[in-house]
């Protein structure tokens, strides 16, 4: 990690041009339910019918999945290489019927419903013995990889643990073996005490700038008490997360001008929900810089914004 202070920039230097959403032909908007796959889960009024109007959120299979729920794993060797069938699940969570809304503008209860939908789908997919991991992620804005402007997130269940998560698990296990403590719990204690990289704390959760961020304004959101698996969170806990997540996203939007961003939920593998060494967390990364040849070739990331400065800018914005 390289924090390039000689390239230091003010928060206003990162502000992106705001693009107004247009939703007249959006297949995710209410009234267009016949243009999507049939829903798996939805928040609905009592008088509404499945796959019709009257919903507050919907979960449905991705129309163009990267993995398919049908089939068997059938791993096989091919010379030096291993391969298996593309078995898994790929789902879309439509977060609101309102095209121009966002997690930053929705009421706390609506954001909590989205988080509860994540939990319910993870618990359901956990019953499938073929699946080992569920990654929840969001691409907001075209520059962050979103192909549709309507507020939505995605969930992909895989038959193996993703490489980045496996490396994170291994590093956490080594730390725990050495110190008999969770590394994220230690980070939380240090940042809450020091305060330089802490952004906001509320509802049992803490948002902080990591010590060595890969990208400017990268932020981690963690439960204040140890919990390895997101799907083990209670409804009250997730309502607390909803409040803090909305607060943080509004701060980010005011400081950076509603930037494109990604978030990724890193949680314990489906079969290891009680890990003492792992602490689930949400990583939020505004799309403000480009990854170029040096980063791809070396594995080093060049970040022109020190985390202390990013945290201070986000912490100071309370309008």
Protein architecture, described:
- The protein has 319 residues and is α+β, with helices and mostly antiparallel strands.
- The protein has one domain (2-316): HIT family, subunit A.
- The chain is built from 6 helices and 14 strands.
- The protein has helices spanning 108-125, 163-179, 183-194, 235-256, 293-298, 307-316, and strands spanning 2-3, 41-44, 55-61, 76-78, 81-83, 89-94, 133-140, 152-158, 198-202, 205-208, 219-223, 261-266, 281-286, 302-303.
- The chain has a 10-stranded antiparallel β-sheet, sandwiched between helices. Strands 1-14 form a two-stranded parallel ribbon.
- It starts with a strand and ends with a helix.
- The model is unreliable at 1-7 and 17-23 (pLDDT under 50).
Query: Could you say how many structural domains there are in total?
Result: 1
Level-2 CATH architecture: 2-Layer Sandwich
Largest sheet: 10 strands, antiparallel
CATH homologous superfamily title: HIT-like
Give me the secondary-structure category.
Answer: alpha+beta
Spans of at least 5 consecutive residues with low confidence: 1-7, 17-23
Which shape, going by the Cα principal axes?
A: globular
The fold-level CATH name is: HIT family, subunit A
DSSP strand count: 14
What share of residues are in beta strands? 15-25%
Q: With helices defined by DSSP (H or I, 4 residues minimum), what is the helix count?
A: 6
- Output mean pLDDT: 88
- Name the quaternary structure: single chain
Order of the strands making up the biggest sheet: 2-3-6-8-7-12-13-11-10-9
What is the N-to-C order of secondary-structure elements (H for helix, E for strand)? EEEEEEHEEHHEEEHEEHEH
Distance between the termini: 32 Å
